[in-house]
Amino acid sequence: MSLLKYESQQREPLVDGNKDYHQVTEDIIRPIEMKPSLLWYIGFYISVGLLLFGVYSVYREVTYGIGQWNVNKTIGWGWDITNFVWWVGIGHAGTLISAILLLFRQGWRTGVNRAAEAMTIFAVMCAGQFPIWHMGRVWMAFFVLPYPNTRGPLWVNFNSPLLWDVFAISTYFTVSLLFWYSGLIPDLATVRDRAKTKFRKMFYGVASFGWTGSTKHWQRHESLSLVLAGLSTPLVLSVHTIVSFDFATSVVPGWHTTIFPPYFVAGAIFSGFAMVQTLMIVVRKVLNLQDYITLGHIEAMNKVIVLTGSIVGCAYLTELFIAWYGQNTYEWFAFKENRANLFSPYGWSYWLMMFCNVVSPQLFWSRKLRRNITVTFFMSIIVNIGMWFERFVIIVTSVYRDFLPSSWSTYYSPSIWEIGFYLGTFGLFFTCFFLFAKYFPVIAVAEIKAILKTSGENYKAKMSDIEKADAEKFYIEEVAHAHH
Amino acid sequence: MAGGIKKFVVGSFADEKVLFPAVKNVRKAGYKIHDVYTPFPVHGLDHAMGIRETSLHTAGFIYAITGTTTALTFMTWVFTKDWPLNIGGKPHFALPAWIPITFELTVLFSAVGMVLTFCYLCNLAPFVKKHHFHPRATDDLFVMAIECTGKTNDAEVQSFLQQAGAQEVNVQEVETGWWIGTYDKAQKLYKEEKGY
Prior knowledge:
- The complex is a heterodimer.
- Chain A is mostly helical.
- Helices cover 70% and strands 0% of the residues of chain A.
- Chain B has a 4-stranded antiparallel sheet with strand order 2-3-1-4, with helices on one face.
- Chain B folds into 2 domains: 5-53 and 133-186, Alpha-Beta Plaits (2-Layer Sandwich), CATH 3.30.70; 56-121, no CATH class.
């Protein structure tokens, strides 16, 4: 069952430079063993500062109530649930990269999967904050769990999409965490075995669970990764499908559309990849990992961005068309007057979303721009702004003029504590990410080693001899040998 | 549980291209490979060593259907027996509405169960201390440990490994215990394997 250990030179190498196994270890582990740079400290303390501001904003909200936010009679969700959906969406790229691309045997995933999975976990942690603190009386949060209680027992409503969300998000978080950590164990063992200081020996000794690299353990590890990938693939699709059900199963014009599940999933992957780009472009530069996260990797992710961005664009136009074609007065009003009309109160947000998500990613049809780091970095920010506005448009413009004109609200804009809460999750996300980048291998060391001899630049260079040689002879010597 | 002291002849290889024929030759010569420690999963090494396929995925399937049945029976019991709530006049047994939660629990049970089983089978846990035959086995060396019995001539095994291409060869004495592993019993003898 041996795999064919040959990859055409036509394919771009996934690991640049003259590397051997030890060099891979050195390059990826060294940043962990060095003192962090001044930039790291600055970034880390800014993140902690934001986090503390978020904690204070939440403290205000818990102490004085939801009234600290500017949510009102018709707009009950406001920024809070916008942020929730935005963060969950970002949390989809990690599992997509590690699971779906593993099943599709995409070698380039190995450069970015570890950091993307970490990003997923931190993003889901941030997302989880919003529905929890939105409860107002947060000390009652355990009411969402189906436990035998003294109120009957009165169970939770299993038919409600909001409860499906509880199960979906908590399952997604747990499975992503397990997937990420089981992949980390062998690499933490690598850090442990070269540790010089007492702290590192102790910390990585505990964290690596006593991993030895035994062949049988690797065999089980491979089986575990494959099955977890197989489970995570439908899981990642189900999670954002269920998030979209929060809207789609309602009767609110602008929300009750059957297109929501695929449209949300594509949007989630779109924004998730954009966030991976933002982080990876910084990480590869700061940690000097350009040989592992190559232009080829960035280009591959930009291709996903242009694909999913176009799917999202298609969905926008489809729902607009169907709103008109369906001849439902309220639906068409929501789309025509509340959204597409540039001069309506929130028209600007609809067109900003259209521009960021549909028009701007089309730049990536050009190979030159896909491989341009500066363009990619700015695009990744634009996409994330656009995807935030997508959720804002869906949540706010669908309800600010509801069926009763008497309750049409005044212009909704967030209070400082609503904004503070959102900034606080940035603090949480980046605090976690800075700690991760300092203490954990940001690239899957073992996985890079496994593809090094097929996809490393210096090994690929040697393949020209094989490519020029007689095909028949190549088969007998290389392939037949590999099968024994 | 800790047993006595076991002796191993340990050879380290720098390249998997040298390792594969060495594994074959060592087994052909009748030595028992305790284990080979590698820095990354080397495809086909398990077969070369005669280790049987893992059945971890079967365990995963069993955990998965446990999750499915747990979710379905629990929701059915709650909504048809324990407290049948009238929700908009819809049927109490609302199967389509339960599919999302059923699916999530299926995945959750399977993933958690598999990871715990994996850790149990491989003796992985925080604070577990194991004997490491070579610190570079997690970096760039492929480390083969051959178990010595009373009859084994270690000098002979050592020179055999050197001839097979090992970079470094030495003899190590290890205190045995559960963490040393028992999976080598699953390894078939070379002559028992088909195709040779």
